[in-house]
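Interim report, section 4.2 (structural modelling).
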Amino acid sequence: MKDGPDIARIAALIGDPARANMLTALMHGKALTATELSGEAGVTLPTASVHLSKLDEGGLLRVRKQGRHKYFSLASDEVAGVLEALMGLAAGAGHLRTRTGPRDAALRKARVCYNHLAGEMGTAMYDAMLARGHLREDGDDLSLTAKGTEFAREFGIDLDALETKRTPLCRQCLDWSARRNHLAGSLGRAMLSRMHDLAWARRIEGTRIVDFTPEGARQFATTFRT
Amino acid sequence: MKDGPDIARIAALIGDPARANMLTALMHGKALTATELSGEAGVTLPTASVHLSKLDEGGLLRVRKQGRHKYFSLASDEVAGVLEALMGLAAGAGHLRTRTGPRDAALRKARVCYNHLAGEMGTAMYDAMLARGHLREDGDDLSLTAKGTEFAREFGIDLDALETKRTPLCRQCLDWSARRNHLAGSLGRAMLSRMHDLAWARRIEGTRIVDFTPEGARQFATTFRT
DNA sequence: TCCATTGTTTGGTGATGCTCGAACCATACC
DNA sequence: GGTATGGTTCGAGCATCACCAAACAATGGA
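Predicted structure of the assembly:
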């Protein structure tokens, strides 16, 4: 009965609607200020402040102070993973908060998951890189092969800059819509960032949708065709 | 702000200590009755009853009526996966409910995860079967190779009986202690069951610990050495 | 048919905790 | 300095919900 970690503690933390809204908003990947998050959650600043300190206390958030602003982001990819897993359960149970519509379809196609690409295009990229031997799965670990390193450089990614970071280069992340893996980690972040630089796609403000241009979609299909 | 599934609903469901205890107890894999679960949660039968109906309502449980008993089990492997992921976060955040002790070490070494083997020995088995080409990973999917089929038969598993079931044969499951994959699905269940039949190991009543005999541990190491 | 066991429902109690307005610090900009 | 903005703390109000005891329904066995 009292085996294992204290699950209820953090589940209760996520279980409040206001806090869940904040966490969902942070899945966009960008760090947000307290006022922005209060808007996302639909509560006033004071209440948001209490919620945020609780989330921080619980270890779910990373906080940075910058001048008179306070920026909040998810503490780790692991937190994002749990949120995605919960979304999978909620979606599967049929308790979608919003009716499925064109917006939902767009989310399924391509969206931002924390800081990397998810949805059908995210899993397509993952599968392609795996099939071509750019990535190698070893249990739950993921690594970039020599071939993958070359590919990344050609794609315009500065791998040296990435390796200095604390976060692992490659990580698996499970999709709530496609129920498959996609690429997370600092490389996943860099790949999406590069696609923005190449003008393949742009973010639709206020949503998690990644909108590919027709030309961008064509290039993507060519680059990651299996 | 209102993208995606309703995460707070089920997180709140897991977020109550009594309910979390029940769910954790069900990670043992066996179906339990309402009275048993009330004992696990440390509440009276009436309160347990309302909790259980809520969990059922939320789609987290599978309920079967048998005579005057009501048996509860987790609704799916997916639910078990979310619980494990939450345990990973809680453990990582350092909010272990129990101080680490010999019991905790035993849990880390070998334990039951829903219905299959987890912990260090679980991941060791998974890695060995992957390295020998018994299992093949394809994205998030897992399949049994021809070589693996032969191995399973030699090990004494009736694969024909397993294929009739609804649950997939092979599935990955992430460990909260080892942070690596281990083998779930009906094959994972059958493997653990077979080890019990071979008297390699036995369950310690009332816990999730799987206790290997010295001889059983030797056989295990031989069978799954890399 | 009667009794014992299992589970559900109801009513009442208590506590937890979410919420906001207002007052209070801190920083930045003029 | 003075002023505006971002954030925190305090107080009170309010709703939700977990909890149990007791009564009730259902099933199985004697």
